[in-house]
Structure formats: C-alpha cells, structure tokens
Amino acid sequence: MDDHAESLMYEEVDGGLASAISRFLPEKLSPSDLAEIQQARQSMVAAKSEKDAAALFPCADSRPCYQVYEHTCGLDHCWPAGVYYHFLGKSSAKEPPALRDVRICGVLKAVAIARNRQGGDFGLLLEFRDRLGQLKQWNMPFRLVAGRGDELQKALFDQGLDIHYPQRSRLADYLCQQHPDRTVWITSTPGWFDNVYVLPDRSIGDSSDAVILQSEGNIHSSLYRQAGTLSAWQQQVAGLCPGNPFLLFVVSLAFCGPLLAKCHLDSLAIHTYGPSSQGKTSGMQAAASVWGEPKSFQRSWTATLNGLESAAVQVNDGLLCLDEMSKADAQDVSKSLYLLANGVGKQRATVSGKAMAHQHWRVAILSNGEDSIEAHLSKAGIPVKAGELVRFLQLAVFGQHGAFDHLHDYDSGRDFATALHQHTSQQYGTAGIAFLEHLTRDARDFAAYLDQCLRIFEQRFGPLSAQETRAARSFALIGLAGELATEYGVTGWPERIAMEAALICFKHWRQQRGTGELEPQQLANALRQYVELYGDSRFTKTDDPNRLHGERSGYWRPTERGRQWLFSSAGFKKAIGHADLALAVKLLIGQGILKSGPNPKKHVTQVKVHGGSAWFYVIQFDDDHVG
Prior knowledge:
Elements: H1 3-9, H2 16-22, H3 31-55, E1 65-69, E2 82-88, E3 99-105, E4 108-115, E5 123-129, E6 135-141, H4 150-158, H5 171-176, E7 183-187, E8 191-193, E9 196-199, E10 202-204, E11 211-213, H6 230-236, H7 245-253, H8 257-262, E12 268-273, H9 280-288, H10 294-297, E13 298-300, H11 305-314, E14 319-323, H12 330-342, E15 364-369, H13 373-378, H14 386-391, E16 392-396, H15 413-424, H16 430-439, H17 446-461, H18 466-487, H19 497-513, H20 518-534, E17 539-541, E18 554-559, E19 562-567, H21 569-576, H22 581-591, E20 594-595, E21 605-609, E22 612-620
Parallel strand pairs: 4-7, 7-11, 12-15, 12-16, 13-14, 14-15, 17-18
Antiparallel strand pairs: 1-2, 2-3, 4-5, 5-6, 8-9, 9-10, 18-19, 19-22, 20-22, 21-22
C-alpha cells in the first residue's frame, strides 16, 4: 500500500470509507472487501497508537530509569532512537522537579547472560548496530564495568557504537541493570566446545545453549574472513591441485585441525623447505585460503615466543601457517618447536605472584623455509633433537616445476604460481566453513578411520619403526582429511587422490630422513662428522711416536675392514655432543658401530698404544671408509 492510499484510509469524508476507497479503485468493492480494509485500518491505528505510546518518555513516578527506544521517541518523535536515562531534576518548595531526559548511545540491548563451564567469566551478550548500520553481537566481560568503565567505553567505541560522548560514563551503570532471561556458554578459545565449533563470528553445530567466543573486543574475526564462493574456490584453487601431489597434500593438511580432537591427537606439524621460488609459499597460500585471506592468515616465524603462543591459541583446532623459518632467530625456533607441537604455553604468574592458567591449543601446523630445521639450527651451533624432528616432520619441495608437476595449461611454473596467488587472494574462507558444517553433523568414529588409513601405509611400506609409525599417522590423517573434504563435496576432487598424495609425500619424507629410528642415525652421523673433521688432527696411529701439539681425542689402528677409531672417554663424550652417554653406547652397540669390550659394564677395550696402554671406545664404520 502506497502513502497516498494509506492517507486516504484515515480521511473522514461524507462518503465514509467506501467513498475514500472509490477515489483510487474505480470498481465497486464487495462487503467482504470493505470489511477486510476496515480491519486493516483498525490494526494500523492500533499499531500506531502502541508505537506512539512506546515512544513516550516515562512519567515522574517511574524515574529514574533507563529505557531503550528502537525508533524515534519523545513527544512528536523528535528524539533519535537509542538508550536514554530518565531522571528528575532539582526541585524546590515552589517548583516540582523537572523531568530530565538524556541520550546515552544508540540502541544497545543485552540479549543474554554469558558464563563459562567453571561458572566464571560472566558477561553480557550485547546486540547493537554500528555507525554504518551493521548489526553486531559482542560478549562484554563483566570485569570491564569495574572502576570507571573506561575499557568498556574503548571497546564499544572501537566497534562503532554511536555513543553520546558527554553521557558515556553512564554505559556501565545501564549495563549492570540489565538482566536478560536467556543464557549462553562462553569459551576463551575458538575450536571445539562439545559438538559445537566456535569461531569469532559464529558457532557451527547444535547445542541447547548458544556458544560464543569470549573476547574483550572484536578480536580475531578478520582471520576467518570470506570472499568469493565455494564453487569459485573449487574451480580456481582446489581445481589446480590434481596432478600436483605437493599441493594436494598441503591443502588436505588445512582440513586436519578440526579432526585432531576427534582422532585423539594433540598436534600435527609439517615443515616444507627448498630453494626460493619453488612453490612453498604458493602451497601455503592455497592451504590458508581454506580458512581465510592468505595474507592475514599466514604468520611469520619472526614473531616472539609469546606471539607464537597467541597465534596458536587464535586458531585452536584449526590451521597455523608459519612462513619463512629462515628469517627467524635459530634460538627462538629451537624453543618454539617443542612449545608449538606440545600445545601448552609457558607458566606465567599474576602481578600478585599467583600462577596463571596455562594456555592450551591443538593445531595443525604448516611451516616453510629455505632450509631444513637441522640446517637452520646448525647455523647457530644448535644440535637438533630427534624429538623435535618427530614432532615437526620435514618435507623437501618436490616436482618437475618446483612444487608442481601438472601446470594445467599454464606455460611455466612461475605462471602457474602467479595464477594460484591471484586466485587465492580472491577466493578464500568458504571451504573451511563448508567443511565444518558437515563435520559437526558427522558422528562417525574418526579415530577408527585413522587406524584403517594407517594400515594402508603399513601395507604400502612394510614394517615401520615406532617413530616412522608416529609420522605415518600424521600423513594418514592428512590423507583422511582430504578424502573427507572430498566426500563432503568441499574440494571437488576425485576420490582417493588426497590419500595417494599423502602416501607419495610420506615416501619422500622417508627417503630424505632415512628408515628406522632417528637417534641411532644422529649418533652415527655425529661420530662420522667428528672423525671427518678431526681424524688427522686429534688422532694418531697407535704406534706413532710423535706427540700431538693440540687436543687429543684418541688413536686409530688399521684392520682388514678399515680403520678402527679408538676414542678416549673425553673424546667420545665430545663427539656425541649432548646425547646421554649410556643411551649413546646402547644405540651404537645396536648398530654394530661400537665394538664391545671384554667388560660388558664399561663397553670399553684396553688397547696398547705407544708408551703404554689405555681404555678406549672402539668405533668401526663398517659401511664406509671414513678416515
């Protein structure tokens, strides 16, 4: 109904309602039509009366009070919508108190009371429109109303609430008087909350009470920003992955984060490395585009330890992308490897000295750099631990064109990488949400599925050591995640190619690392390197009468199988570095490198040398001719 028709309905003319209607409807209306119009008129009049009544300011008996007006208010509707404080002015013997009305801010409603599982961290879920008219919800922690409420004002100003500046101090008082009936759960980190997956701007899944992320501002929401459509992402990003095992692998990894908890795993970390301009960053951009804008979703290894903790918490149960390890300080990287993979932050204390709660996270990590972890740490003389390399699995970039094999009609690897970069900057964030919408409704036992996937690796590669099995489980999870995303219709890939890519990448990982456990390899390599470096300067033949003019680590003697290196106790300890002596002896004997002596408790052999005899650790490299 247009304005002209509506005005005619209110006209009082001689012909009554029928006369007014006939002015714009030429044909005669039936009695039933007229009755419907009459009923509509009465409803409009009643609604207008209710709206006028709701817009009126309260009388003196109801003051002081706060009122929220969603439309213009006051006499003649001359006041803008918003939250108002109504109170009485000063009175005297001659004059009654004046009615005072002040506007505090735009429409601001408390729609629910929020709390965590422990019955703490109470807050109010607020709803308002910012200065551009965008509807927003924000969980206001109640602690922000303590004191003068300055932090509360800052947070609301920052989020665009229209606040009447002279009355800003009344915001805390107004909010403290709100008691909504509805309740919601809050969580301090994104990720799983029972069967609900919580993101900064939404919760996905079913719950009796809504679940929201507790924050003191509109934090982290830009991480999960979306652009384009899922269909376009499938064509322009995921569609370039088939034929490229490396790309299939890293994009499949992006879906692993939400599966970690369902498979009872704490973390998964892959470090990809190789020369510059080989496609490492392109792969990371493709993976990051699953969840958000790659430029903002990628984090740098150059962040502080505290910064990396915060970055991991922000993407809990999701994907953490860490770019360019080679630019970070080796000492910081060494400290970060265990920290990030273990998912537990440093212990901190409050100002009063009380222990604060640890930060926890569970993430799938994709890292890259030009160097391997060992090479990067060795620049600072830091030995890499086997535990670090078990937690952070390393994969050298491979492919006919850097990280790519199939260029999908592009002329070169560079053109392919450029197109992928352009596509990921335009299409992002939709795949992860689509994946979660299916996963939150999927009640299958994914831990059992992962066990089945692990058996595929064991069948393909035969018996695996304990460390290899742990690594294979990570690769199997990546394959499972890619196949699950395909089953959900998220990737648009053919079946089985994600798992096959994971198997190919595991084969490359195993070839680069070597088979079996890592500690024995590291010890053997440490001894080889020591002999290569110091075999001529710190060792002499057992019957050589010449004295060394520098540090001595032992002697050597010829055998039919090559030289035997006779390490003194001090030389042996220096050669094995920070390794535990007893464990090193056990592992080297197991490899046949350390020859047992007559005393099984000492594992040393008494050997005659020029000028006498002494006890030595006898090392024989049977598989090469070091020295």
